[in-house]
Amino acid sequence: MLINLNGNLVPKEEAKISVFDHGLLYGDGVFEGIRIYSGNIFKLVEHIDRLYDSAKFINLEIPISKKEMIDEVVKTVSANKLSDGYIRLVVTRGEGDLGLDPKKCKKVTYFIIADKIILYPNEFYKNGLKIITVAIRRNVSEALDPRVKSLNYLNNILAKIEANNAGSLEAIMINQQGYVAEATGDNIFIIKGNNLITPSLFCGVLNGITRATVIDIGKKIKMNVIEQTLTRYDLYTADECFLTGTAAEVIPVVEIDTRKINGGVPGKKTKIIIREFKKFTKKLGVKIKYNS
Ligand code: PXG
């Protein structure tokens, strides 16, 4: 496996960064998780746009242009001859000293890993997930905006620990106002009648690339797509529910806080959306040409 470290392809064993890197010391950095489907890097341009927006928010200047970053991603995937897999693109503040001041970090670090992906076991796509809402609240936008995909995932990890401790695979996080936000690494959707509903971005959620794709699918199949505030009541009384994310794709939810959704089986409309999503994954993105 070859890792792209600051533009150089190096063997995995040599892909090392300093213990003084502020990405490690303070979580000072941003990242993206991207999928490759049949040689197509799904929505790569949208992921790169979001990466640069996250970097801009934290006042981190990525040393190469978006176009160059796209080329670096393509170079890494093709060097590893991956046609299906997962890309982790990380940009950190770089090496500094033992103070948190980013001014001391003179050179931004970036690296790109292209590897196979580990999915939820297939049975969960077929039978759906049982999930819970957790006590830990989603970060407030005034402290650290959830739209920034930063290396600070402790908020989400604390929620995941709560879910793990309760024997649940995923957690739904509520925001400071008591409205539903998102799962630890996925956005949430419910279906009520012909309405496809997801929390608005102002509820404190990541502007998910899969979320945007599902919104487009909803419009295409003539559902009313609504972004609004949701409470636990809306979740418990939904006809159908599912989560969306690059890693999880579209995965049905069949139980929330012990309340069964759609009688405890994946919903009909959810299955249609999953089918449509699979078609989209091969169409939208940047196609790879593999080096022979
Ligand atoms: N919300 C959060 C907090 C996320 O981290 C999503 C929603 C879905 O966004 P996309 O753009 O992927 O549709 C994410 C992204 C993992 C993992 O290991 C999960 C994500 C990213 C990287 C790794 O589970 N989720």
User: What CATH first level of the largest domain would be assigned?
Assistant: Alpha Beta
CATH arch. level architecture of the largest domain: Alpha-Beta Barrel
Low-confidence stretches: none
Say which CATH homologous superfamily of the largest domain is assigned.
Answer: D-amino Acid Aminotransferase, subunit A, domain 2
- What's the CATH topology name of the largest domain? D-amino Acid Aminotransferase, Chain A, domain 2
Q: Biggest sheet, open or closed, and with what strands and sense?
A: 9 strands, mixed
Anisotropy-based shape: globular
Radius of gyration: 19 Å
Class from secondary-structure proportions? alpha+beta
What does this structure look like?
The chain has helices at 22-26, 44-57, 66-79, 122-127, 154-165, 209-220, 232-236, 268-281, and strands at residues 2-5, 8-11, 29-37, 40-42, 85-92, 109-115, 129-137, 171-174, 180-183, 187-192, 195-199, 224-228, 240-245, 249-256, 259-260, 285-287. The chain folds into 2 domains: 2-115, Aminotransferase class 4, branched-chain amino acid transferase, N-terminal domain (D-amino Acid Aminotransferase, Chain A, domain 1, 2-Layer Sandwich); 122-280, D-amino Acid Aminotransferase, Chain A, domain 2 (Alpha-Beta Barrel), CATH 3.20.10. The protein is 28% helix and 30% strand. The protein is globular, with a radius of gyration of 19 Å. Helix 6 (209-220) crosses helix 8. The model has no long low-confidence stretch (mean pLDDT 96). The chain starts with a strand and ends in a 5-residue tail after the last strand. It is of the alpha+beta class and 292 residues long. It has 8 helices and 16 strands. Bound molecules: 3-[O-phosphonopyridoxyl]--amino-benzoic acid. 3-[O-phosphonopyridoxyl]--amino-benzoic acid is lined by residues 33, 156, 182, 185-187, 206, 208-211, 244-247.
